[in-house]
Amino acid sequence: MAIRRLALLAVPAAIAFAAALLLPKSPSGLRDLLLGGQLGLLAPMIALVAWAVLTPALFPGTVLAGASGLAFGSLGGTALAWGGAVLGGLVAFVLARTVAREQVERVVLRRQKLARVSELLERRGFAATLAARLMPGVPATALHYAAGVSPVRAHAFLGAMAIGALLRTVPYALLGQGLGSGSPLLLALGGTSIVLGGLGGGVLVWQLRRQTSLSAS
């Protein structure tokens, strides 16, 4: 049964990782690729599908968000970046919880940092997921996979991802549009949101550690 599940996963996974390797790694390059095909109203839908496919393949969400802002403007780009980040995170979460669970568990246990995140997720669920999502230096897709093999409930994961994406993903869409349009306001909004998200993550981590130390004493 496990071999069959892996075989079913192998082809789409290979396609996703090949796309992640071959696609441009700059927001402007992705924007040109997306809009150069004269896709019209299909372009946002294709971009959303790209989020769902490329996020589990470890493609940088910051690049996807920046390309969303450049391609679809501050309003459309931020909406797409938020929805895409949540959708891509959910796909990775479901993959880790179902067909790739054993493989992901082995990777998480081998990596000390991910193992600590997984342990915290097991104890604190929503708060730990949100804190890890907001903290700089924690790869989003690694968090998605670690959460998938932890006991975190799907609705708690989705809630934390939805909040976290507002402060950690949407700002890069604003930065992308700000760089493309030369708008100081968008650049300031994007930068401020990233800083606030990092501070919020730091406060949450401090509270979680304090609660853990109090419960252990």
Computed structural class: mainly alpha
What's the order of the H and E elements?
HHHHHHHHHHH
Shape label: globular
Q: How far apart are the first and last residues' alpha carbons, in Å? A: 45 Å
Strand content: under 5%
Overall pLDDT confidence: 81
Q: Give the proportion of residues in helices.
A: over 70%
Number of domains: 1
Low-confidence stretches: none
Radius of gyration: 18 Å
The total count of strands amounts to 0
Main pleated-sheet profile? none
Q: How many H/I helical runs? A: 11
Describe this structure in words.
It is a single chain. This protein has 217 residues and is mainly alpha-helical. It has one domain (2-216). 83% of the residues lie in helices and 0% in strands. The radius of gyration is 18 Å and the shape is globular. The mean pLDDT is 81. It is a multi-pass membrane protein. Keywords: Cell membrane, Membrane, Transmembrane, Transmembrane helix. Its main location: membrane. Belongs to the TVP38/TMEM64 family. This is TVP38/TMEM64 family membrane protein.
Can you give me a brief rundown of this structure?
The chain is mostly helical and 217 residues long. It contains 11 helices and no strands. Helix 10 packs antiparallel against helix 11.
Write the layout of secondary structure elements.
Layout: H1 2-22, H2 27-35, H3 42-54, H4 61-97, H5 101-110, H6 112-124, H7 126-134, H8 140-148, H9 154-168, H10 170-181, H11 184-216
Helix pairs in contact: 2-4, 3-4, 4-8, 4-9, 4-10, 5-6, 6-7, 6-8, 7-9, 7-11, 9-11, 10-11
